[in-house]
Amino acid sequence: MVASTSHPAAxxxxxxxxxxxxxxxxxxNFGARVTGPLTLTVELGSLAVAEGDTPAGxxxxxxxxxxxxxxxxxxxxxxxxxxGRSTPPLIRTxxxxxxxxxxxxxxxxxxxxxxxxxxxxxxxxxxxVLAPGxxxxxxxxxxxxxxxxxxxxxQGRTVLITAPQSGVGPRERQLASATIxxxxxxxxxxxx
Length: 192
What we know:
Blueprint: E1 2-4, E2 17-28, E3 33-43, E4 47-52, H1 55-65, E5 74-82, H2 88-91, E6 95-98, H3 109-121, E7 127-130, H4 139-154, E8 158-164, H5 170-175, E9 178-181
Parallel strand pairs: 1-9, 4-8, 4-9, 6-7, 7-8
Antiparallel strand pairs: 2-3, 2-5
């Protein structure tokens, strides 16, 4: 199922939601929109891929849904709820941002992504967000990372992986429970 930010009430799933996002818009402190508006629900134990045209928009979504948005650079409006928690300090108790660029000593890009997922597996987090996720990977590497994420969903975890707009093929879409299309409005507007 596809959720799109062009539809205000786009829904990935509603039967057992872990992540609920309502009207999320992330802007720089100068007012430029980075991503949104976005409204979605992601079910517990699912694998979702968030596709966006800009790395900044994908990372902003990842940071916002894990309670790690850098407030010195960005602001979010809207509501993010993870496992019933809706403030960043509480969200951070149930969500982790697995960033593969923080993994050192592993040269292969897909293996760094898998190492980040392995690190996240050791946490108690119910929501694991991998960012960068599928950026810069070949088709076989994307499938390898999605398979690693699928192992986490088999344990009842929810995984959200970021990907470039043109970086997810039909095979990868089949491996994911849902894809989410992110939009960016680069026009400068005042922060709401």
